[in-house]
Amino acid sequence: MDIFRKMTPTLTRLLEAFLLVMAVVILNFLLIQLAPGDPVEVIVGEMGGASEELIAQLRASYGLDRPVLEQLFIYLGKVLTGDLGYSYYFNTPVLDLLLQRMPATILLVLSALVVAVVLGTFAGALSAKKPDGMGSHLVTLFSLVGYSAPVFWIGMMLLIVFASIWPIFPVSGMYSMRRPDGIGYYLDIAHHLVLPSVTLATIYIAYYSRLARTSMIEVLGQDYIRTARAKGLPENKVIWKHGLKNGLIPIVTMIGLQFGQLFAGAVLVETVFNWPGLGRLAYDSILRRDYPTLLGILLFSAVLVMIANALTDIAYRRIDPRMRRAKA
Amino acid sequence: MMKSDPMTDTLPPQAEVAPPPAAKPDHPMRETMKIFLRNKSAAGGLILLLAILFATVFGPSMYGVDPLEMVWVPLSPPGDGTPLGTDYIGRDILAGVLVGGRVTLIVGAVSAIMTIVIGILVGAFAGFFGGRTDVALMKFTEFFQVLPSLLLAMVLVTIFAPSLFTIILAIGIVGWAQVARLTRAEFMRIGNLEYVKAARAAGAGNAYLMFRVILPGSLPPIIVASALVTGSSILFEAGLSFLGLGDPNQLTWGLIIGQNQNYLLDAWWTVTCPGVAIFLTVLAISLIGDGINDALNPRARKRA
């Protein structure tokens, strides 16, 4: 641990993220070992059977006859050079498949996050202003509902409403049948994005509004807020500028920790809305028992989550001056 | 205070009435219980949960329709021959919802217990021993906290073949991180209090200190977290069986929704009713959790 102390917090954080990624790679390797069947069995199955010698030859060419530890190093080497295996179902290298699906998921997750943080913070801060008011009770009620309903079910309910009762948003996929050109192309995607991202955001609106409420109530009770009020600042400025600055800190912390859960929610939401991202891919590869793809998604999303995590952490240290000197 | 607990529980009812009420102060547990029941939403949650338990335990035999049999025209709406309509192969939705709750609730409860036990153990060791043990265990916890938990559970269940056991195991494995963090924080706080130091000086061993001295004191926040964990375990199970990763031989709320997914625009009731059941169950548990939180939190007590 002494080496860590000599480095800057940013570097430490990056090194930690790297170690976590390696841990995920090792976990992935263990899961591959546990998964039924290996690539050779799949190939032999596709060929409709093969001789003993050919099987042995294939196993050797995949390194499957080596000791497990050696196989782990072979696997590590492969992952580091971007080789995540081959999807026999989609007939493509797994990495290509993942890179192709990644933008859709990142778009969905980030837009849901923005919606959730903005609406959640706003609702929470508003209800902290008058903790016993009508609006506050509404926020509490809404957050209870958002907490308790399964996200895929919320998606389905929205789907029913916007498909048959009030058809103003597309309910499936990411593009229209006839793709418009230029700016229309992006507007079309944004139009398709509305329902999935709102669905995914619901749980987090609930979550952040609760968090923001608690943290704002605490912040608004502090001395410096009383000072701000006493010197005659308008109430809005006290709350939205002075209060929110500190009230936001726990939310920023949570954002980093929740990337993983957002990804998990994306699996369900993408399945409901047929959104062509990693989550939908995960669902399809489960149906096909396509292990290389499934494990590739786990590894890939874990890496994305850890990168996002490290970035929030670094950003957080820069934003909050108290954290700049604090130890990791 | 904790020790007298089982005694009051096992006393016959007459003995409880016997002493004059003013003679002794209320037992802390009963005091907490009173505050809990005075809280309208908490009491409502408790009644709702009891009603759901009653419906899933006695409902199927009272209703008497086989949930797996085709009993009516497929996709017929509620009220048209069956109370809550039928699904895409003509099975009774109400019968499915009543039976489906059993697996959902059992899986939710058992995996919640597993999550809490793993979380308490990891958190207790990290918080009690501190130093390197703490650093190592917390890195381990962070690892599980940032992994996309549903994805990991999906992979685990797919690899080990879906069954009740693998689902419970998967939910337990992916969900304990938050309980561990909470337990660790409590152990660190309480571990420095005078009474723990006294017990240590009196020669108490580590295991005794951890589980007999510190753990009882750190239970209140853990109990509150347990309610949240139970709710999220139920949602987790629903998500897995919605994706077709449940035990294929067991009807659950999530499975009914997943199976009827392609028909939801023609038959909204097939997905709405099981979803409402999940929602109400988790809602009841959250309300109870909030109620316990308020009852155990002295600041909230004053407010009430």
Can you tell me about this structure?
- Chain A is an all-alpha fold and 328 residues long.
- Chain A has two domains: 2-80, no CATH class; 103-323, Orthogonal Bundle (MetI-like fold), CATH 1.10.3720.
- Chain A contains 15 helices and two strands.
- In chain A, strand 1 (86-87) and strand 2 (92-93) form a beta hairpin.
- The model of chain A has no long low-confidence stretch (mean pLDDT 78).
- Chain B contains 14 helices and no strands.
- In chain B, helix 11 runs antiparallel to helix 13.
- Chain B is elongated.
- The model of chain B is unreliable at 1-19 and 300-304 (pLDDT under 50).
- The interface between A and B is large, with 50 and 42 residues.
The overall average pLDDT of chain A, rounded, is 78
The CATH architecture name of chain B reads Orthogonal Bundle
Count every helix of chain B, treating DSSP H or I runs of 4 or more residues as helices: 14
The first-to-last residue Cα distance of chain A is 11 Å
Provide the CATH top-level class of chain B: Mainly Alpha
The CATH superfamily of chain B is MetI-like
> Which shape of chain A, going by the Cα principal axes?
globular
Instruction: Give the strand order of the largest sheet of chain A, numbering strands 1, 2, ... along the chain.
Output: 1-2
Cα radius of gyration of chain A in angstroms = 24 Å
Main sheet record of chain A: 2 strands, antiparallel
Class inferred from helices and paired strands of chain B: mainly alpha
The first-to-last residue Cα distance of chain B is 24 Å
Number of beta strands of chain A: 2
Compressed to H and E, one letter per element, the order of chain B equals: HHHHHHHHHHHHHH
Strand content of chain B: under 5%
Radius of gyration of chain B: 23 Å
The total domain count of chain B is 1
> CATH topology of the largest domain in chain A, anyone?
MetI-like fold
Secondary-structure element pattern of chain A, one letter each: HHHHHEEHHHHHHHHHH
CATH superfamily of the largest domain in chain A: MetI-like
